[in-house]
Amino acid sequence: AQTVTQSQPEMSVQEAETVTLSCTYDTSENNYYLFWYKQPPSRQMILVIRQEAYKQQNATENRFSVNFQKAAKSFSLKISDSQLGDTAMYFCAFQNRDDKIIFGKGTRLHILP
Amino acid sequence: NAGVMQNPRHLVRRRGQEARLRCSPMKGHSHVYWYRQLPEEGLKFMVYLQKENIIDESGMPKERFSAEFPKEGPSILRIQQVVRGDSAAYFCASSPLLGQGLPYEQYFGPGTRLTVT
Predict the structure, then answer these.
(1) Surface of B (9-28) touching A: CB under 8 A
(2) Chain B 66-85, residues with CB within 8 Å of chain A CB atoms
(3) Nearest to A101 among B102, B106, B111 (CB)
(4) If we measure between CA atoms, which residue out of B52, B93, B55, B48 comes closest to residue B71?
(5) What pLDDT, on the 0 to 100 scale, is given for residue B93?
(6) Distance between CA B15 and CA A13 in Å, rounded?
(7) Spatial distance between the Cα atoms of A98 and B14, rounded to a whole number of angstroms
(8) Cα–Cα distance between A112 and A15 in angstroms, integer?
(9) What percent helix, strand, coil does chain B show, rounded to 5?
């Protein structure tokens, strides 16, 4: 069975610092997607970044980038120059051809002024 | 192009009542997924539907829960005889017609928060 593990339940960093959120997953598939979703207090699920497993290049979206290590089944999210608006729950997620998305339990991130 | 719409956004039911949650997918999307988020947890897959077909209901509780996606109208997630443990946020996501190979991106609605008193 596919699983997604986020080992950091909660993190706090100062505004403008860089923070890295960890995620590992388990699958026997070769082709799949990995995601980071942000869930602010409004509870809306916001897609932050997506990585296709067949692409070796790490995805980036402005201040957000990932470190995708396929052999190690690791998919960490780096947030640079963190802002107060980055405060939220962050979920790592996995999707393969079965289409259902499997989510980790989340990391609660606090950006401190 | 409006996003995925869910209503109601908040629903309060007493134990034993029925809850009906609605999801209108994005225009042109023919696939709908329902996920449940218990307090302090990640989202968990419940069911995957196409128009008039249930494709995968492996995440649905065997009793009291049902889902449909009729030819016309929104997808409905129905919970009969609700209990306190059903209190959660229920999210719907939609995706366009699938092709070969990798899956298509799912677009999430804002969720319905169900509270059972």
Answers:
(1) none
(2) none
(3) B106
(4) B52
(5) 94
(6) 42
(7) 36
(8) 6
(9) 5, 50, 50
Asked if B59 reaches chain A (Cβ–Cβ under 8 Å), the answer is: yes
pLDDT digits (tens, 9 = 90+) for B94-116: 988 665 555 677 899 999 999 99
Are residues A99 and B95, on separate chains, in Cβ contact within 8 Å? Answer: yes
Residue B39: phi and psi, rounded to 5, are -55, 135
d(CA B27, CA B39): 31
Residue B41 pLDDT? 87
Report the distance separating Cα B66 and Cα B80, nearest Å.
Answer: 8
Please state the length of chain B. Answer: 117
Tokens of B8: 């109601």
Tens of pLDDT along B29-72?
A: 889 999 999 988 899 999 999 989 999 999 999 999 999 999 99
Nearest to A91 among B31, B42, B48 (CB): B42
Q: How far apart (Å, rounded) are the C-alpha atoms in residues B65 and B82? A: 9
Q: What distance in Å separates residue B45's CA from the closest CA in chain A?
A: 6
Q: Who among B31, B91, B103 is closest to A95 (CB)? A: B103
Cα angle A59, A100, B83; round to 5:
125
* d(C-alpha B25, C-alpha B39), whole Å: 25
**Which of A105, A108, A32, A106 is closest to A73 using CA atoms?**
A32
- One-letter identity of residue B80: Q
A10: closest chain B residue by CA: B40
